Amino acid sequence: MRVFYTFLFALILPLVLLRLYWRGFKAPPYRKRWLERLAVYLEDYPEDVIWFHAVSVGEAEAVFPLVKLLQSQQPGWSILITTTTPTGSARVKAVLGDSVSHVYLPYDLPIIVRRFLNRFKPRMAVIMEKEIWPNLFHQCGQRNLPLFIINARLSANSASSYQKIAPLVKPALAQVTEIMTQTREDYQRFIEIGATPEQTTVAGNIKFDVSVEQALIDQGLLLKRKLFPGRFVWIIASTHKGEEEIFFRLYPQLKKNIPELLLLVVPRHPERFTEVKNLAETVDLKVVMRSSDELCNNQTDVYLADTMGELKMLYAAADIAFVGGSMTPIGGHNILEPLLMNVPVMFGPHMVNFKEIAENVLADQASVQCRDEAELFNTVHHLYQDALYRKQLKANGGEFLKRNQGATQHVLEKLLSSTLGSS
User: Which residue, of 64, 96, 314, 349, has the fewest CB within 10 Å?
Assistant: First the structure.
């Protein structure tokens, strides 16, 4: 079946490139560095690398502590990080700079994959979460290249989809040295799609080990004093199409009892910045864009964060937070970051991508789930009126994070054991 998959991929590759060009109208970085996706490189890069793949921003943020820990223990090793999206690429460059090499993941065609592997000659491949590429995995197997899927997670819907193409997925998984899952549920689902119990373990979630410097928290608090004095700031983070309307609709109702309320909106995708601004202005909300360097005044309703790489700092500038991708059936986004930034956290009903984390954080009374607009309205009022409740949520969130940390060291020990053992 891999031959048929390869034929289809080759057939649609021109359409894939055309889609990149089309996306570039809204997000210009998609039009840049196309050659990297074809494994054609115009710069010199090191060989004999430890290779990590993190598809986008969330995966990149999660892998950074692991990479930094590896760098501290093996400072002489060359590290390569690939991403698929420009936003992921930007985070790699912003956080790790020249301490690592970075290119886009090449397209999964044999000639392109071979060119990539021949160029970098990786000693080990580490894939974040659930990326399964049949030709890439096959080539790793042909070269006896240790291949790991770490922080592996698989929703029920994804598992069902993979089961429909089992003849393609199972041989790919057979090339994987070890799959380290976040939870027992993820472990079972990887077994269901073709992994073996011998190659699959539950290692925990390395996203709990993301750390933050006090300076970043201080920067957020300074921003709040400078830009939002006297305002009760509600950050709505990682929003998707169809979500902003909900909060813009609630805002005038909430303002009746919370006159100092300010919405700090952070869309998930940069190509939607202008769309969200226009949407707010359509319902007569006054907007200030972060990139404008304008100050908020008493008439400002929405502060729109149209910049990249500042989400953690903006969480610290807020009084309460809502994590998007959860009011519409996207599946949710990372709620650990606002907990880390010591802000009370809310999320919506659609958390399939973070099911166990959502269940556990609710059981520990460290966050609040709002299933509809009425619950959003009531929760914001409660949080505004009850400072002790906000304080307790923050304290519970900190304890929740501490109890679940440690997976990063465990994963690194396994990776080092494989790499040092084969050297």
Answer: 349
CA atoms of 189 and 354, how far apart (whole Å): 15
Predicted local confidence at residue 421, as pLDDT: 60
Q: Where are the beta strands (DSSP E) in 188-229?
A: 200-202
CATH 3.40.50.11720 residue spans of the chain: 2-205+405-422
Strands, sheet with 50-53, edge to edge from the N-terminal-most edge strand: 101-104, 79-83, 50-53, 124-128, 147-152, 178-181, 200-202
CA distances from 187 to 93, 174, 312, 359 (A): 32, 15, 30, 18
Q: Which is catalytic among the residues 59, 61, 129, 244?
A: 59
Cα separation, 380 vs 321, whole angstroms: 10
Beta strand 178-181 with 232-239 is unpaired
- CATH number belonging to domain 2-205+405-422: 3.40.50.11720
Is 59 designated active site?
A: yes
Instruction: Select from 249, 248, 240 the least CA-distant residue to 271.
Output: 240
Query: What are the beta bridge partners of residue 51?
Result: 80, 125
Q: Are 265 and 302 in contact (CB under 8 A)?
A: yes
Gap between the Cα atoms of 189 and 195, Å rounded:
9
Residue for token pair 């929740």: 400
Place of tokens 């902003």: 244
Residues of the chain with CATH 3.40.50.2000: 214-403
CA distance 76 to 123: 14
What residues have CB less than 8 Å from 294, skipping those under 6 apart? 288
Q: Decide yes or no: CATH 3.30.365.10 for domain 214-403.
A: no
pLDDT at 422: 54
CB 316 within 8 A of CB 342: yes
Residue 317 dihedral angles phi and psi, to the nearest 5°: -90, 0
Q: How high is the pLDDT of residue 328? A: 96
